[in-house]
Amino acid sequence: MAITCQHCGLENPGDTLYCRQCGHDMTKDETRIMSADDPGSDSPSKETQEDTRLVSPTEEIKDGSKSDSPSQEAKQDTWQDSPTERIKDDSESVPPSEEVDDPLLGQVIGGCLIESRIGEGGMCAVYRGTQVSLMRSVAVKILPRRLAKNAAYIARFLKESEIVASLHHPNIVAIHDRGSHGSLYYFIMEHIKGATLSEIISMKRTIAPGDALAIAYQAAQALKAAAAKSIIHRDIKPENIMIDENAIVKVMDFGLVKNTAESKGSLTAERQIMGTPSFMSPEQCKGEPTDNRSDIYSLGMTLYAMLAGRPAFYAEAPHGLMMLQISEIPKPVHERNPKVPESVWPVLERMLAKNPDDRFEDWQAVMDAFVKLQSEHPDEYIVSDLLQRSDSKRLPIISDAAPTPTPTPTTGPPRPRVETPPEFRTDVGPVSAYMHAAKAGKKKRLAFLGIGLFTLVFLIVIFAVLFVLPDQSDSDKPKPAAVPPPDRSAEVAAMAIKAEDALEAGLFDSAAAVMKRIRGTFGASENQETVETVRRTEERIAELEPQWRMVHGAMAEARKLEKSGDLPGAHKLLQITRARLEETRVREYLNPAIGSLEDRMQARYAQETGKARQFIATSCWDSAIEAWNLAVRFALSEEDKEKCIAAVREIRNLKAEEEKNKETERFEKLLEDARSALARHDLQIANTFIAELVRLRPGDKRVAGLADRSRLETLISIPAGKVKLKKGVVEVSAFAIGAYEVTNLMYGEFIEAGGYGERKYWSEEGWTWKEENSVTAPRFWKDEQFRMHEKPVIGVSYHEAEAFCAWLSEASGKRHRLPTVAEWECAAAGSDSSVWPWGPETEKTPANLRNAQSEGTVTVGKFPEGKSAVGCYDIIGNAAEWCRSDSAYYARGGSWLTSLERVKSDSESPIPPQVRSNRVGFRVVREVD
Question: Can you give the pTM of this predicted structure?
Fold first, then answer.
């Protein structure tokens, strides 16, 4: 696959980035024919879109593919992002360094003296020249020799000239003649002084609604005339619409024109994709057949760009733009630019319909819609001085009659002077308009040039009269006076203007070339005006160059940030740079780049805020916060930034509230589970729930109550072993015993569960005793002295304690009973065979015995120092505990009324099982499988 350089015509390999012959950057070309049938190509051409990178002027001229002079046909694709460097004036052309290398300059081609190259496109170059026979200024479009070798290129070039020549309309650039000159093919056109629509947009950012409508109306007239001959343009865009110095719109560049009456064997094959992606119709993007409604769509996109300041769609690649053209509905233009009236949108929306059948049926319908819009809303669509040619504020209507020929010096009186309004300089391009705004005296300097030339001619005549004509012999002739050198200050002034213009457009290389030429030619001049001009120009260069270098540096850094995805960083950098610049023209150069970044940031802002709202709808709080935090980086206004920050605060509150609600739900569930576990006396599960409850709410009283209840039911495992009793050594199997005596709280559950009325819990002897004595609760159950929940239950007989154990076995699913004397002794044993559970005797006994001088039982566990070696609290004192050995019943361990000396003797004395003393309670044993 080969790619033809659109600058020099050399065929390069398909992966070439820069032309091997001329160094042209081939990645920036707009390849308008994207098909295997592309003339001069062996394979499908690489499609590209309008380059929306941040472009600096120095990049645009490095490859020589662009000129800083005007062109009716050569167009810059990055009109919305970079300033125009063309200067449309008879005295302006390409920089001297480029002119010197052009062999066509000074030649006569087709009867036209080629004076300067004013533009260069992908297939041709355009020159300004003078048609010698009529002494009128013309534009000569030339197909270079390198492309003239290809028959398809020649056919397309000649076809364009034929079609344009057949269209006689004041809004279409006129063709005067065509022909060949050696191996060159050319055609001669009228020379337009003015600016392209893209240049005006670059300068003004947006065009007033009335002006935009008037421009679109005139363009529609031109396209109507073309459609009448079955001709469609297929490349309508701002670069191909020009406004001359008389405010007349000119439609140009019919290089992609198609005659719908032609057969399929014509130059343009079916399914070719041709045009500029930002302005192509959906059917063009799909390679489908097109008619005049395709041009209606493209003009609609052009009108949109005039009103909004940039195209309707943006994408990183051509295919992305084409997909948007096919499927995406443009955002209403009045939403992009609040200064645009909403009344224009229905008309524009119909022009931009995706289905051609939904658009205006023909150009007359479009024009009628424009006129109706302006007549119904005259105050909204006032035509400004940009297009005014009379006192009328209505649309400038151009009749379909043939245009009046432009007068020339040989055919009529001179053309009247047209006053150019301040908003739009029709004699120069947009960037030149910026530059000339600061040079009000330029025409005076050009007048000096004319005076200087006149003086030079006058001196030559005098010289001929004095020295050449042989009127008298040498001996009789007086010696001629010394003739002073000609005054070339006007020439210096003109070149200095070129240098300043190039510099003010940021074209350092061009400015340097001109200044080098000035110094080389006039550096030794003693003419004070010349010296002053050179000095003033150098001062201006010294003044502007640092600012432009600042701009280029910032642009280069901004491109790096942009490529890395840091659009906010690039935007901030360019804004800071713009604020530091002193020159208005230099500052305004950054406006398109900043505007492009702002559009992309706004789109990203909308994308991220949309994501955030979706995340909120699904309660994905963290993702929503992340999206809002990202959106705030792309927010352009303080209001939008505050909106993002407020949204993050609100989401965090919602998240906290939701988490709190979830925590509350979880807490209540755990609380209920812990209660259920305690009700089943499943202490292992209950303690797991209680530990999590304490972590969630450390100070909750309900949790503390559950923790105390679980603690009071704690069981201590004791392994199997032997214990020495009075009757001898007894073997004991492994068992678990309560760490505390049974409390009033635990025993109260037994009563509330109806334990005293359930026969199944009682032994036969115990039930009989209970029924005969009408026992329904412990003897001291209602005595406030003993009633506290955490005190040991007292006043219970052996039968009552035994019934409690039966109920606890059923509730927990594990066998509980009262301890034997041997088991009790194992639980009460001290370490190292000590006499007491806590060890040797001490001066102050760590137990609730008589010497503790308490008035009754105390909270269990109050004497922790008195616990046994295995961990049983109150095993001595507080309440004596029911035990059994064979058929005898005992109350072991002494009580709050027992002295230490009496503990052992009282513990070894049997008592009846019916005893209900305020000194006797019990603790339980759980059997181990």
Answer: 0.39
